[in-house]
Specification:
Length: 458
Amino acid sequence: MRYVSTRGKAPVLNFEGAMLSGLARDGGLYLPETIPAFSGLNDLDGLPYEEVAFRVIRPFTGDSFSDAELRGAIDRAYARIEHTAKAPLRQLAPGHHLLELFHGPTLAFKDFAMQLIAQLFEIALKRSGQRITIVGATSGDTGSAAIEAFKGIDNVDVFIMFPHGRVSEVQRRQMTTPEAANVHALAVTGHFDDCQARLKDLFNDHAFRDGVGLAGVNSINWARVVAQIVYYFTACASLGMRDTDFTVPTGNFGDIFAGSIARAMGLPIRRLIVATNQNDILHRALTTGEYRVGTVEPSISPSMDIQVSSNFERALYLAYGGDTAAIAQLMDELKQGGFTISQGALHALREQYLSGRVSEDETLAMIRTIRAETGEILCPHSAVGVAVARRHVEPGVPMVTLATAHPAKFPDAVEAAIGIRPPLPPHMQTLFDLPERVTRVENDVQALKSLILDRRTQ
Ligand SMILES: *Cc1c(COP(=O)(O)O)cnc(C)c1O
């Protein structure tokens, strides 16, 4: 399978190449040239998660990994998810189900992709003898998932930038307490969008990029999107492989984009619904056609406090029919603050996605409502999803809302809603006793470069 950049000026790569590079050299994002149709949809019910994962992922990896390597990586990755179903469905109300993606080691859905790509990186790097430096930007959950997945993996250093003071204490501690020498947590003065912008600066400096063997594991990494396709399949298999709606709490557009790939592979997904908090650039873009960057308003669902939604570029690329020149032009305009989506592309996007926005008060109210109606405690991100989903539930069509994090990861928001601090699961009880290791850094690309050169263990 061949991977091409959304901006059309980067080399065509195979799966391994696209995975190891993350961002394409022209600043674009890699996508497969064609999306493979899935055969055997009706054979999936009752299979272990790992087996479904193998069947869904296999067509994307081409000759980059043998079947045995891929199966081994999947088995090791998902052994750390503390639920035999891995992504269990739980019923919230008649016709409305929660897809629980928070049973992994860092309690957010990011573990599904990160655990797998750490295993795939290890296989690829062992084979080539190459050493790499992973640099990531996080609004909280990507960073903890990356550090947890890559700690102690040979031939890799991991640097994670997070916005200082803007991640929850559990998120921060998950990044700052692992002891492995190859992982480094960096607290950047600024917002998540600043971290993301500095990450792009590092990647666009080709001398630095080649010098340290820079690799990216942010949600722009195609291998992460691929891993996230799997749970749409297991959810539909559990519901009898009939038309199903999905609502996805969305920030960087990775999880929901995986849903649109699942649909393109033939999964019977009827509507895909984007749920945003008050940082609603995606909702505004889909309703007005204007993709304009505002200022980030910190919220109680911080993993979605994003204005520039990186993976949206992939959706635009498909909506513009693969017109790479048009995408490169839009991304240039974005540097000036935004762009207008063409009528044709907007129409195509609206055929793919509905959207909704949820205020802070509505989020808190939804945590209360679901607690009262079902006894379940939602994390604030999942509550944003459930609130939007409830506006769209239709009789006869199951609705699945992705529950993206465990409530214990965001205890302040949950306590504000229902007066209860949800406890951490047993395997994380020591988190608050462990010493933290973190480096403060200014929102400045030169400062970052010297820090990375200085700290690498290689
Ligand atoms: C990352 C994250 C999101 C947003 O996911 P995207 O793929 O970036 O849209 C939502 N909720 C939680 C808990 C997350 O960690």
